[in-house]
Structure formats: structure tokens, C-alpha cells
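Q: How would the C-alpha cells look for this protein?
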Amino acid sequence: MEDKKDFSFTIEGKEYSISEKQNTSKKSDKQTLHVPSLGIGAIIAGICIAGVFFGLGDFSESSEPLIEKQIVQQPQVPQQISIDTFIQNGSPVLGNAEAAITLVEFGDYQCHFCNVFYHNTEHEILENYVMAGKVNVIFKDYTIIGQDSINAAHAAHCAGEQGKFWQYHNTLYDNWKGENTGWISQENLVKFAQKIELEIDSFIECNTEGRYQQIISASNTDAQTLGITGTPAFYVISMNSGQVQQLKGAQPYEVFEKIFNSMLET
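A: Here is the predicted structure in C-alpha cell form.
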């Protein structure tokens, strides 16, 4: 049975509500992306690959100033990528589960450019494409900055237990105050939970038990499998043509709009 919640947000004083579906699809056997039938909640048919870098197109010609770089050794080249790499170990699906396009973001709640994307671009995507049922969204953790990033990600998943992942996600970015500045304290995480009216004892218990550590770790592994070296990183998946388009960094709304419209026309 589908577990749906309503996610509400405000843009320039206007109230919006989007359906949020818990991503509870069962894992299928691992499949490479060129196979003809793949699962995301329901079956995605005909995934084919555009581009030459792991079969992924890349619209971000000069994304260096728009991305939070990961200061680690270069990741190993992935040998195999499955659809689960994109959609498992993430947030509930925001929007129409049958939308023609799925937008997957790998992000870090401390990341400066993730915050830039949230404030400058994400709300327009929600208003113009998600509300219209054309695009749905999945957020996946890539906690590259520090322990506070992990703590924030875990708190968002705990909020998800109460059907408010996306409300908590927004609250974190609405209260963003830089990298490793202490704003993601345990005290503030509880305050954010109170702000969106979570049941606090359950929220604290979830965080104390570390229920989502494994999911966060698995999402980080997915990012490394895809060769991601910074945040934010995006994958736009067309359910009509099977194209998978990669975007790096906090690209402006017009870049996403161009890709969405191109995919919707095919």
C-alpha cells in the first residue's frame, strides 16, 4: 500500500501542497542501465543512455564555481551502475510517482552550493514542474563535509518516520549558517523538529538509536559509485526516452528547465 503524505511550502506568499510518497519499492536484482526494464516504485521501461561518461550526458560545462568539492582521493571508476544506485537509500519521492521525469539530487545539508540551489532554483522547479505532475524528486545524502552533515541527514530521515522528511529538509536549509559553524547542534535539531510539530520523544529516540546510519552510509557509497566528487550533483531521468542526464553544481533554473522541456518533448 502506498504511504502518501502532503508536503506544503510557500513561494512568494503562495501556499502549495505536493504529495509525498514513501520510497518503499523493493530492491530488484542488480541491473545495468542499458537493460530495457528497471524499477522506481512502478516499472520504468526503456532506460537507455545518453552521453559517453558512464553513459550519462553532462550539461554543466563550467560548473566548478557551483559545486562543493570533496577533498579526498579520486574515486575508483565504477564498474557497474544500476537504477537502484539512483533511487534507493534516499528520501520519500516528492510529487507524482508516475511523473515523466525523476530528478535525483545528491546533497549535503552543510554545503554552500546545495543551499544556493535550494534558495535560487528548487522552489521554481517545485512550482512549475513538480506541482504540475511532470517531475518528481528524490534527495540522497552525500555527507562530505563532516559529522554535522551526517547528524542533519539522520534527523531528516527521522522526521521522515513521521511523514515530514521534506518539511525538515526545507527547515534545515532555511536555517543554514555555513559549514562547520555549529548551527547543526543537537539542540537546534530538536528545535527544528518542534518547529514542524514532530512528536519530539519519538524523534529523539530515532536519532539516539542511529536508525538511519546504514542508509546514509549506503547513499554515500552510491554517490562514490557514480563518481561524484562534490555537491550538489543531479541526475535527471526520463521515463519516456530512458535518457539519464547528469548535472554538476548549483545550476540556474533555466538549465533544469531546458532539460525538462527537452525530455518532455520526446
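The CA atoms of residues 45 and 99 lie 13 Å apart.

Residues 112-130 form the longest helix (19 residues).

Upvote if useful.
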